[in-house]
């Protein structure tokens, strides 16, 4: 006990005293008595900040997606979605679409998430082949966000009953409008100026992707 008390007096904090026993230094065991009295302070940042969730930025991106035609007129900067991709906003968008599509066919949820990840990877690969400076996170974010217009149209179809018992004229119009809306939003954000002339080549697979998404809702 006396030895332990002596060593405790010798060591203060995590720095060694000048009177450190030489036999410990020779055996290179002096680190055994080192202590760290400076405890790390807990980070009191909000949970949303810890998870890197910015509601205002997500809401800004949602408006850019839902109003692609008016982005420039109303002063929105569409490059925000491309330059600052996030995961939580697109995840929320895909979850909303899944919740709408799950009505009576819960097995499609897994397929929706699978097509989100794999379809985004396909668009990412095609964009890089065409010479675009695009990352997978950008593709995943924009493809996910662009499901919001499709979700809006699907809700409208459910409310109007245009998709129950087969499509009527209004159902077909909404079906096409939803695909065009989502595809236009995604293509206008993904296609940068450096390969603008190749926009049709990347727009076509984007349209096919959202047609598949719409099939998950309609069950056709």
Automatic annotation (TrEMBL):
Keyword ATP-binding: no
Coarse class of the protein's main subcellular location: Golgi
Keyword Transmembrane helix: yes
Protein keywords: Golgi apparatus, Membrane, Transmembrane, Transmembrane helix
InterPro entries, sorted: Yip1/4-like, Yip1_dom
Limits of the Yip1 domain: 81-213
Transmembrane segments: 110-130, 142-160, 172-192, 201-218
Listed GO biological process terms: endoplasmic reticulum to Golgi vesicle-mediated transport; vesicle fusion with Golgi apparatus
Location within or outside the cell: Golgi apparatus membrane; Golgi apparatus, cis-Golgi network membrane
Membrane topology: Multi-pass membrane protein
Highest taxon, organism lineage: Eukaryota
GO CC terms in record: Golgi membrane; trans-Golgi network
Similarity field: Belongs to the YIP1 family.
Function: Involved in the maintenance of the Golgi structure.
The protein, known as: Protein YIPF
UniProt organism field: Oikopleura dioica
């Amino acid at each position: 006990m006396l030895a332990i008390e002596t060593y405790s007096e010798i060591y203060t904090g995590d720095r060694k005293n000048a009177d450190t026993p030489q036999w410990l230094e020779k055996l290179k065991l002096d680190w055994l008595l080192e202590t760290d009295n400076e405890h790390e302070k807990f980070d009191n940042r909000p949970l949303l900040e810890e998870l890197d969730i910015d509601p205002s930025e997500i809401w800004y991106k949602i408006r850019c997606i839902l109003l692609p035609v008016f982005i420039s007129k109303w002063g929105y900067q569409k490059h925000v979605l491309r330059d600052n991709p996030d995961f939580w906003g697109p995840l929320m968008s895909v979850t909303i679409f899944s919740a709408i599509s799950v009505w009576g066919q819960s097995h499609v949820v897994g397929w929706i998430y699978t097509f989100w990840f794999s379809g985004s990877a396909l668009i990412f690969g095609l964009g890089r082949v065409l010479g675009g400076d695009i990352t997978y996170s950008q593709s995943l974010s924009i493809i996910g966000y662009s499901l919001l217009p499709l979700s809006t149209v699907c809700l409208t179809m459910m409310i109007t009953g245009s998709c129950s018992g087969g499509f009527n004229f209004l159902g077909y119009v909404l079906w096409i409008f939803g695909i065009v809306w989502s595809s236009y939003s995604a293509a206008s954000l993904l296609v940068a100026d450096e390969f603008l002339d190749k926009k049709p080549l990347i727009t076509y697979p984007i349209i096919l992707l959202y047609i598949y998404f719409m099939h998950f809702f309609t069950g056709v």
